[in-house]
Design goal:
Adenylosuccinate Synthetase, Chain A, domain 3; binds 6-O-phosphoryl inosine monophosphate; ten-stranded mixed β-sheet; binds magnesium ion; about 425 residues; alpha/beta; four-stranded mixed β-sheet; binds guanosine-5'-diphosphate; about 35% helix
């Protein structure tokens, strides 16, 4: 039995989808435990490309996908993904937690309205209603998967919640009247479509652990978007770190055996907020073009920069990462020189930790160690020693600085472009 957790260590889009798919071949269950369809996980199998926003990536390998209680679900998007996958010949096996909160139409309206009001101070959210849905969960105004399957309960909850939401929408000056009857009809219809999947996933998962099954937890976003440990307030609204998995799936922390931190070989970020190693020059453009760094969910260009060890020290510590998977190493091919940030200069101090104060973060100037670049690498490389010497040096430095072994290296989006160490 193995219970492995796969999480992003940067600002998301590290290649979690590819790595989860790779490890899914040995799994029985693949579990999403936080976030919603703000995520966009890409899986490439031969010439087929799948972009999943809410369905766990393991379904592509025919494994059971579990959507845990910590996830926020837009049922319209989920049903769309199920239909799409089915059309493509993959009928997803799914289990949805009865306790997962549901993204409602007014959440999406409010996400857009808040961002618009903030203007140039906006977060740059995906406008999928994620923040407002998690806010309602915490303030106990949420609607959960179980409620969709029972029209009477749903009606009662909508009667309680909608007047409050209408007031807020009116304050924003938005010309929109929430139509309770329409929502009741549409969402109880979603409930009927999904009812066979909605269940006590926490019980199923704990039984699976007892029975020695293999489980992969699939993180969404990344540590620097965590609501506590990220660049707050420029974060998402959930716990993207390892701790989020036990809360978001209902399993005890002692069951998790390995925590795999996915590290993109450089850094990217979508949306607003500080990115200390951001490159505004030709190298930044090179990484963006070569790495196809355009958002999987919103198609926005991703900002690019050098690898940042201050970030990685922070993220691997908080989550107790036991092994590293380095992705997109191939994107650095062809650069004369590559750099890794080892510390920040903050005013007159050199620091090696990530500050909490966002104005301090904005002032941090990266201090770099420079490495000689390398040319192309063999797409069929099977072991580290097949990689260019300079690339090996780059990897060794990361491993040594973080004191965590690199156990997987990805050198292309496909399944086969993977080196297990
Ligand atoms: P996720 O959100 O962490 O799952 O990552 P995304 O799917 O949003 O973005 C990662 C992108 O990089 C996708 O287009 C992947 O197909 C691609 N990708 C993953 N690993 C590699 C790799 O090692 N090399 C290259 N060139 N592309 C990769
Ligand atoms: P995956 O799982 C990258 C970013 C948004 C924005 C901030 C808040 O594919 O790595 P939200 O809609 O969550 O309130 O937006 O978080 N963001 C992501 N960036 N990858 C993601 O997911 C992201 N999910 C949210 O761009 O800056
Ligand atoms: Mg993504």
């Amino acid at each position: 039995m193995t219970v492995a957790l796969i999480i992003g260590t940067q600002w998301g889009d590290e290649g979690k989808g590819k790595v989860v798919d790779y490890f899914s071949k040995n799994a029985d269950y693949v579990v999403r435990f936080q976030g919603g369809n703000n995520a966009g996980h890409t899986i490439k199998v031969g010439e087929e490309v799948y972009k999943l926003h809410i369905t766990p990536s393991g379904v592509i390998q025919g494994k059971t996908g579990v959507i845990g209680n910590g996830v926020v679900i837009d049922p319209e998007i989920l049903i769309g993904e199920i239909e799409n996958l089915t059309k493509r010949g993959i009928k997803p096996k799914l289990l949805i937690s009865d306790r997962a909160n549901i993204i409602m139409p007014y959440h999406k309206i409010l996400d857009g309205a808040e961002e618009q009001l903030l203007g140039d101070k906006k977060i740059g959210t995906t406008k999928r209603g994620i923040g407002p849905c998690y806010s309602d969960k915490i303030s106990r105004n949420g609607i959960r998967a179980t409620d969709l399957t029972d029209k009477k309960t749903l009606n009662k909850l909508l009667e309680r919640i909608i007047p409050v939401k209408q007031k807020i929408i009116d304050i924003y000056g938005i010309d929109h009247t929430i139509n309770k009857e329409k929502i009741l009809d549409v969402y109880s219809n979603y409930g009927q479509r999904l009812k066979d999947f909605i269940t006590t996933t926490h019980i199923e998962l704990n039984k699976a652990i007892q029975n020695g099954k293999d489980i992969i937890f699939e993180g969404a976003q990344g540590t620097m978007l965590d609501v506590d440990y990220g660049t707050y307030p420029y974060t998402t609204s959930s716990h993207t770190i390892a701790g989020g998995s036990t809360i978001g799936a209902g399993i005890g922390p002692k069951h998790i055996e390995s925590i795999i931190g996915i590290v993109k070989a450089y850094t990217t970020r979508v949306g607003e907020g500080p990115l200390p190693t951001e490159l505004f020059d030709k190298t930044g453009e090179y990484l963006q073009q070569k790495g196809h760094e355009f958002g999987t969910t919103t198609s926005r260009p991703r900002r690019c920069g050098w690898l940042d060890l201050v970030v990685l020290r922070h993220s691997t510590m908080i989550s107790g990462v036991t092994q590293l998977a380095i992705t997109k190493l191939d994107v650095l091919n062809g650069l004369k020189q590559v750099k890794i940030c080892t510390k920040y200069q903050l005013n007159d101090r050199k620091i090696d930790f990530f500050p909490a104060n966002i104005e301090d973060v904005k002032k941090c100037k990266p201090i770099y160690k420079e490495f000689e670049g390398w040319g192309e690498m063999d797409k069929d490389a099977e072991k580290i020693s097949d990689l260019p010497k300079e690339a090996q040096k780059y990897l060794k430095f990361i491993e040594k600085e973080l004191q965590i072994p690199i156990t997987l290296i990805s050198i292309g989006p496909g399944r086969t472009e993977t080196i297990e160490v």
